[in-house]
Amino acid sequence: MPKNLTSRQFDLVTPDGYIHDLEKIDNKRISVTVVIENIEPFFVGYQIDVSDIFFNLKSLLAQLGLHSYTKEIELSQEIHKARVKLEIIAIDPTSEIVLKNLSVGTYIGKLFACSKERRVRNPDYLTRMFGRSDRRGRPLLCFGGPPGSEHLRLEQIDGRIIAYLPVRKGRFTYADEIGSAIPTLVKGLKYPELKLRQLLRLHQNFVEEAPRSLNENELLLLATEPLHVRTCFAKVVDELLPEGVFHTSASVLQPDTYESGDIYELFGSTDVQIDAIPLEFYTLSPYQEHVFFSDRDQLQQCLEDHECLFEALDTAPDPEDHKSAVFVVKGDQLLNLQPSDWVISDSPQYELPADLYSGRRTMLLDRYIESQPSYPFLKAIEEGVITSQGILLTRYFPSPRLKRLLLSQNVQNNLKGIYFRKPSRAHGDFFSHEDRSFLSDLAKQSIPIYWVDESSHLLLKYVLKPNKDSGMFVPVEHVQTFIDATMIGVYGSNLLEGSFIDELTRLLEGLKEMRKDFDHELLAPDTPLALVTGGGPGAMAVGNKVATNLNILSCANVVDFSRSDEGSINEQNQNPYIQAKMTYSLDRLVERQAEFNLDLPIFLTGGIGTDFEFALEEVRRKVGINQASPVLLFGTKEYWQDKITTRFKCNLASGTIKGSEWVSNCFYVVRNADEGLRVYKQYFAGQLRIGPTGPISEDGFISFPSDV
Fold first, then answer.
1. What element of type H or E holds 112?
2. 486 close to 599: Cβ distance less than 8 angstroms
């Protein structure tokens, strides 16, 4: 698990350190030991050579003319502490006053890890930030006014990107009263929470015509246009300054610099008019870079390679029944995930009090939410600790109890996809009612959800059907097909395949061919077809197999019959021809049927489940959920009379279907594919007498072709 998810501290710097002991060398020099405490365990300085660690003096002291030389650095990761031995020098007479006022307990600076691996080497890393802002509207990188790149010269020198900031004409000088203000300013450094640098401006004057050359024992304060830095560190490069010129040891600009990176302190000697300040840049940790998902080319390439996702999820730590999650913001991170990168949790379910508004219920809900492995990442995004956009990998689909966090504005902005391996720890491959409602909420808020499905070895994306509150997980390459498709459904027995495979093949082939002859909302040359079943064996397997063979998107609404103590366990076996799917727990069987959303249902021989599905299709047409489209009943007239007619006549005679008797003209018994295609052809041509103005059949269906 990343160690910096609960801290706003950047991993290249430590907190400020204070003077632990001090020894005067002469009027211009002192020797001090600085102690830095509470260093975060993720500080990069622990992993690099100490010679690459730089002590950065506080800018207030540097602007008053102090400079420091680092003599020794001792770092202890065990006690989160550092001791730094420095020699501090006074550059000019004013700074000698500052030197005299330094004392034990004064906070004077921090360590910066100049990690070579974190140097910016590609100009695109910087240029893509111009004109962009963080969530508060502050520029990510800007020099002067927006977009902030016109006057910034970038060069590649020694394998790193250097920005040359042009300086303004003139220089800053101090008013005479600065000497009396120094004791107060320096004393204020014993209180780290005080912001003192702006007070220094009260004593500075800008002399526009003053030369920008430099003499010995003189401090040169030069001004540039304001620099905004949010997405990286910047550091002055001494060796690229004119010969004989040095910047003070306050040379690091932090990623919280807003319009304040505009005064630079130089000393040394030169007759050259200094006209630019050279800066190099260091990247932040990936989570804090403010990088947009659209800029992560390698990450997007990895996501297009589905094997990368399967392999990445394989790195989730054991035990496999525990929940685990990781937030990924870079392609390199995805390719090199380790078990230690994941947050893992047993995440017990607490028994909640029945009172929805009790304080104890709220407390237990909060405890449950905080135990979820996704919580640290989502909380860090919400609080602004994670600023880069990325994807969430999780072993199980996230708990709906995380809805408040996942649908918050900051998380929606930064979360560009959820990738999970299993729908549920409790229900395996099946979604609960809460899960499916949550899926719909996420999709409506444009948070992509992907099922990295082991059983099919496909990457499936959750897609809502237009104008519906339900959807399916669809292979990513077929998403648009699913959205645009006319949905054909096959209902029938899970026990009997029958002899329908040839007829169903001919029917669907004929329907595909028929598209070129019509411009109907359900059938047109560019209208794809999709076929939906219950996903089980028997007639359902026939439907999915025929669809797959004909290159029609093969879909299924699969229910978990394994939870039934009395029911047939045969129905829990999914057939192998399914591409897109949604899964349901057994207690949501009725909801599952309501979400078939079929345009053209087809019934084969079936039992109790098929009878239930038939009744639902009747109800859909009666109440107007579905338009009056034809439903094909494959088989003999006698079979469907035995199944349907007695009930229809009973309802007709008792008057219980008065006004909706017309529903009978939506159902057509056909003996073969040719008869079915003739029904479809008349319907799409507008010649089929169907709907409230059509005929009523006492059989409860139309027997084709004699009754049409």
1. strand 107-113
2. yes
Residues in the chain: 708
Of the candidates 33, 9, 135, 149, the residue with the CA atom closest to the CA atom of residue 85? 33
pTM attached to this predicted model: 0.88
Which pairs with CB-CB distance under 8 Å and at least 24 residues apart come from 57-60? Answer: 57/88, 57/108, 57/109, 57/248, 57/249, 57/250, 58/16, 58/107, 58/108, 58/109, 58/189, 58/250, 59/197, 59/250, 59/263, 59/265, 60/185, 60/189, 60/196, 60/197, 60/200
CATH class of 123-287: mainly beta
* Listed residue (429, 365, 376) closest to 400, CA to CA: 365
Q: 536 — phi, psi (to 5°)?
A: -90, -165
Residue pair 238/56 in contact (Cβ under 8 Å)? The answer is: no
Side-chain-facing half-sphere of 540: CA atoms under 13 Å: 25
Give pLDDT tens digits for 72-129: 999 999 999 999 999 999 999 999 999 999 999 999 999 999 999 999 999 988 888 8
From CA 656, how far away is CA 647, in angstroms rounded? 11
The model's pLDDT over 479-526, given as tens digits with 9 standing for 90+, comes to: 999 999 999 999 988 767 667 899 999 999 999 999 999 999 999 999
CA torsion 138-140-143-148 (nearest 10°) is: -90
Where are the chain's structural domains?
17-117, 123-287, 291-417
CA angle, residues 688, 689, 690, in degrees to nearest 5: 95
Spell out a b/e string for 2-36, using b for 16 or more CB atoms within 10 Å of the CB, else e. bebbeeebbbbbbbbbbbeebeeeeeeebebbbeb
Written as six digits, the tokens of 391 are: 């994807």
Contact status, residue 484 vs residue 527, Cβ threshold 8 Å: yes
